[in-house]
Amino acid sequence: MKMFTRAIVRTPGKSMVDGISGSGLGKPDFSLALEQHHQYVKALTECGLDVTILDADERFPDSVFVEDVALLTDRCAIITSPGAESRRGEEKAIRKTIEKIYTGVEEIVYPGTVEAGDIMMVNEHYYIGLSERTNPAGARQLVSILQSYGFTGSLVSLETMLHLKSGVSYLENNNMLVYGEMILKKEFSGFNKIVVPDKEGYSANSVWINGRVLIPEGYPETTASIESLGYKAVLLNMSEFRKLDGGLSCMSLRF
Predict the structure, then answer these.
(1) By residue range, what is the domain housing residue 46?
(2) In a domain, 1, yes or no
(3) CATH number at residue 81
């Protein structure tokens, strides 16, 4: 079981109100988003993480979703290649920060695309979702890099999910939250599945950190299922980030 010690987050910029969105929930309230982000950082700290907070980058409305632009492992860092055109360049903006921490920094080369919201770590194996944001060329590059560092990787085709972790979250101890198309994926047949009901689908993106699970507020059935397994639940209001199709995992790089 991997224990995390550090995290990187990026403060939302005012430009976030123009971020990519397919939610139909309207534009986010910037002031409320700042407060929700503050509570998120506080929760990471209470999970035992040393949190690096990067300044807002107004050039990129979606840059608060810092998880997508890098994969940080205990052996290397991999700079990704965003599949959304408006996000290309975010990966360059974070590279200097990562190079201060890692000596081994690899990268996905365009036209291969990978967004790390499509990557789920289970021990030393990485599941990689093939989505509108992560293409086969990028995924193959990622598997090759992971294998060179002694990890393994496999591909999971997505039909409806924006990102792999929109519908599945690994909670350690062989427990996995699954929702929608992820419920019947053969790739996850060996796990103890906690099925997220349709009405609580957004909560499928919850995050295990050092024995606690960060869960979006307002999803009582998912919360009860997680707590029944002995985890301490940490509830966070994510309303303004949900408007931008963003979830809990999207807002930090944990390593």
Answers:
(1) 6-254
(2) no
(3) 3.75.10.10
If one counts every other C-beta atom within 10 angstroms of the C-beta of residue 118, the result is 30
Edge-first strand listing for the sheet containing 6-10? 50-54, 6-10, 253-254
| Domains contained in the chain, number | 1
* Cis? peptide before 111, omega within 30° of 0: yes
In the annotation, is 250 catalytic? yes
> Of 37, 47, 76, 250, which one is the catalytic site residue?
250
Catalytic residue among 37, 47, 76, 163: 163
Active site residue 163: yes
Task: Give the Å distances, CA to CA, from 242 to 28, 180, 190, 215, 216.
Answer: 9, 18, 30, 13, 10
Confidence of residue 82 (pLDDT cuts 50, 70, 90): very high
What confidence category does residue 2 fall into, taking pLDDT thresholds of 50, 70 and 90?
confident
Residue 44 resides in a domain? yes
Predicted confidence (pLDDT) per residue in 181-202, tens digit:
999 999 999 999 999 999 999 9
